[in-house]
């Protein structure tokens, strides 16, 4: 499979929508099976995007490129930070960010989601994660154990100064779950009200080995193939609910 991870610079909403159409068309035309955009890529923290306009763009783009699955990062709708997946003009999956990031006062902008989400694409079960969710390994683990996912797509608005944390958490989720992980972070935000340098994009195989890219956007991965693991974290998982305490 060919996966396109956008290196996205967030500008004003109108330019963002225009660039979304251009990049989507270029990526799909180059043979991308999945095209992934980052968290809040249309509006950031300081702009407002009309949900109807965003959905109209998502539907039109995915209709024009029916063989490609699009992960349209996230946008604000119903007071949620909402990640959506589209194919053939239809929304085929959605996830509302559960773990809002307190230091950025995200609770002022959004209400947290109340469930995890996975989507099946061409026989591949994909778990959906949004930025700060990565700090909570139980979310990825629940998606694997309960939904049988073999890949995760994580979108983010993560700062460059902490790219080592973002990269480490992505790799950890791959190793501990024996799953493919694709992390797409906003590259930058450039408006007078909001200037931001984002972290890098990363892709890891189920052993935690990084995938190489020749153009900083396109990754080739055998996502549907069985993973060869030294330790299979699903097959050898032992559930223990009891914690024994000594001295307290």
Q: What do these coordinates show?
A:
The chain contains 5 helices and 15 strands. It is of the alpha/beta class and 248 residues long. The radius of gyration is 18 Å and the shape is globular. The chain starts with a strand and ends in a 28-residue tail after the last strand. The protein has helices at 13-29, 51-64, 106-109, 137-147, 163-177, and strands at 2-5, 9-10, 34-37, 69-72, 75-77, 80-87, 90-96, 118-121, 124-130, 151-156, 180-185, 188-191, 194-197, 202-204, 218-220. The strands form 3 sheets. Strands 1, 3, 4, 5, 6, 7 and 15 form a 7-stranded mixed beta sheet that branches. Strands 8-9-10-11-14 form a 5-stranded mixed beta sheet, covered by helices on one side. It has one domain (2-220): Nitrilase/N-carbamoyl-D-aminoacid amidohydrolase (4-Layer Sandwich). β8 (118-121) and β9 form a beta hairpin. The model has no long low-confidence stretch (mean pLDDT 96).
CATH C-level class is: Alpha Beta
Judged by helices, strands and strand pairing, the structural class is alpha/beta
Helix content: 10-25%
**Count of distinct strands:** 15
Sequence of secondary-structure elements: EEHEHEEEEHEEHEHEEEEE
Q: What is the architecture at the second tier of CATH?
A: 4-Layer Sandwich
Number of domains: 1
Rounded to the nearest angstrom, the distance between the terminal CA atoms is 52 Å
